[in-house]
Structures are given as C-alpha cells and as structure tokens.
Amino acid sequence: MIIAPTAAFAGQTSQQELNQNASAVGYSQVNQHANQVNLQQQSRLGHGHRCQSRPSSQHSTQILNQNGAAIDGSLVSQQARQFNNQSQLRHCY
Predict the structure, then answer these.
(1) Which residues, listed in sequence order, are joined to residue 19 by a DSSP beta bridge?
(2) What pLDDT, on a 0 to 100 scale, did the predictor assign at position 5?
(3) Is residue 2 a part of any domain in this protein?
(4) How many domains is the chain built from?
(5) Which domain holds residue 24?
(6) Residues 60-78: what's their mean pLDDT?
(7) Is residue 87 part of a domain?
(8) Residue 20 maps to a domain
(9) Does residue 4 carry a pLDDT above 60?
(10) Is there a domain that residue 25 lies in?
C-alpha cells in the first residue's frame, strides 16, 4: 500500500481588468459605471488518505472595457457589471 503525502489545494488565480474612456464636447455628458466582483473559495473537511487528493484549480479572468463619446449636448450612459463565483467543497471521512 502506498500512501501519498497530504497535498495542498491547487492554486487560485484571478485577473480583473477595467478600462474606461470618455470624451464630452459642447455641454455633453458621459456617465460610466462598472463593477467587477470575483469570489473564490476552497474548503476540505474530513481526514484520511481519501482527503489527500487535490481539487481542480480555479481560474477567473474578467475584462471590462467601456468607451463613450458625447457631442452637441448629448448624453451617453454606460453601466456594466461582472460577477464570478467559484467554490469547491470536499467532504471526506
């Protein structure tokens, strides 16, 4: 019987990028709103060699780009929201 040493959880990575560009000319208005949320969680409960294996890794990439141009008294309104929730839970006994 071969028993492997207890392995740590696989790594978690998260990359978030948010870019906003706006131009307003002549009593114009550009409103931009952006929100990015990333939640990652890994848990392991229990004991024994069955809990030694590693869960899959978690990776998240969120990119949000907004560009707005308002001319001659116009209004540009932009809203964006990104949400990512990843969870791994292992029960071993």
Answers:
(1) 65
(2) 38
(3) no
(4) 1
(5) 13-44+59-74
(6) 92
(7) no
(8) yes
(9) no
(10) yes
